[in-house]
């Protein structure tokens, strides 16, 4: 039974990676953000939510910085949280105004959402250098737009499955351990389960630096 569950979870993970990789992989484009050296970078998608502030406090406790990719449609009611992201030295990234759940969208739809979202985010920061579209969606038209506007697309090396409700914590910790070993860019999501995972990530990073 356990083996069957693990097989299903791994299949879901593989499908997600295929959807976000082909044909929209970062390897097809040049203006993608890479770490200058093998190190850690924590990124948090789909905020702000009621859990974002808890994540900010955890990062502050461990003296770590992150990029928070925010959706403009979620800003209302979390204005102070967004201000705190900027105040604590984190980066605010553009995650589009709406979070679309399907990849096959025209470049113009995504670009328009990014423009709307940037205007919303400018109320909180004048540094909106990084973009990550929902699901890491990329098209040549989108990447051309980002390049002409001096924006960097931030993909990931490890995307946590913390956005899937039934994924058990031990499997997420297994993902974290793999991330710690290979380093790179980690993609978390702003939800209750992610707070626990972020705490574990920061503890593991601290152990690795000692």
Describe this structure in words.
There is one protein chain. The protein has a single domain (2-209), classed as TIM Barrel (Alpha-Beta Barrel). Mean pLDDT is 86; it is low at 19-24. It has seven helices and seven strands. The protein is 45% helix and 14% strand. Helix 4 packs parallel to helix 5 and helix 6 packs parallel to helix 7 (192-209). The strands form two sheets. Strands 3-2-1-7-6 form a five-stranded parallel beta sheet. The N and C termini lie far apart (39 Å). It has helices at 2-21, 52-61, 79-87, 107-121, 140-148, 169-182, 192-209, and strands at residues 40-47, 66-70, 91-94, 130-131, 152-153, 158-159, 184-189. With 210 residues, the protein is of the alpha/beta class. Helix 6 links the parallel strand 6 (158-159) and strand 7 (184-189).
């Amino acid at each position: 039974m356990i083996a069957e569950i693990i097989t299903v979870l791994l299949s879901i993970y593989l499908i997600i990676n295929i959807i976000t990789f082909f044909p929209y992989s970062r390897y097809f484009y040049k203006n993608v953000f890479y770490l200058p050296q093998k190190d850690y970078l924590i990124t948090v998608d789909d905020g702000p939510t009621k859990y974002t502030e808890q994540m900010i406090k955890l990062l502050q406790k461990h003296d770590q910085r992150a990029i928070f990719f925010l959706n403009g449609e979620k800003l209302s009611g979390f204005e102070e949280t967004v201000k705190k992201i900027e105040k604590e030295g984190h980066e605010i990234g553009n995650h589009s105004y709406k979070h679309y759940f399907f990849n096959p969208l025209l470049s113009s739809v995504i670009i328009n959402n990014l423009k709307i979202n940037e205007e919303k985010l400018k109320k909180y920061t004048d540094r909106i250098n990084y973009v990550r579209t929902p699901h890491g969606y990329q098209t040549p038209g989108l990447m051309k737009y980002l390049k002409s506007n001096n924006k960097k697309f931030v993909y990931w090396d490890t995307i946590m499955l913390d956005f899937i409700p039934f994924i058990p914590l031990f499997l997420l910790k297994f993902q974290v351990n793999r991330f710690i070993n290979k380093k790179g860019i980690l993609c978390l999501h702003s939800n209750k389960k992610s707070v626990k995972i972020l705490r574990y990530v920061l503890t593991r990073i601290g152990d690795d630096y000692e």
